Amino acid sequence: MDSNIVHNINYHELAQEVNVKKEASPELSHKEIVSNVLEKSGMPPMSQPITPAPSVTQSSNKNDDSILPDYAKKSDPGIQNKIQHLVSLTLEKGLKEGINFAKKEDPFVMDAYHDSLSDVLVDEMKKRKLI
Question: Distance (Å, rounded) from C-alpha 43 to C-alpha 18?
């Protein structure tokens, strides 16, 4: 993930919503709350991930897959790149635009994007000490 991306996400507003929901439902994790907020922003709800066939070139994949959920790290490198691109695009262009692009993808990519984006947003809000 390129750390030089200028984020077009209002983290303060997002964190405020997350913190309010966390107070109301302390049993939920920050990731679950962010996931719910993303769904409210127009992202379809997550389904059970479809396990892809293992990639033949998996061991030679040189992509930075640190943002990918474990199940997506086993997918084809092209799919991994697509997920990473969607997350980067979302950070650059904002939630609505990123989600609109992601909606055009198959369910596996959508779920992995949803998981990855939730993790990235939570990590960034924690880094900024907003949650």
Answer: 17
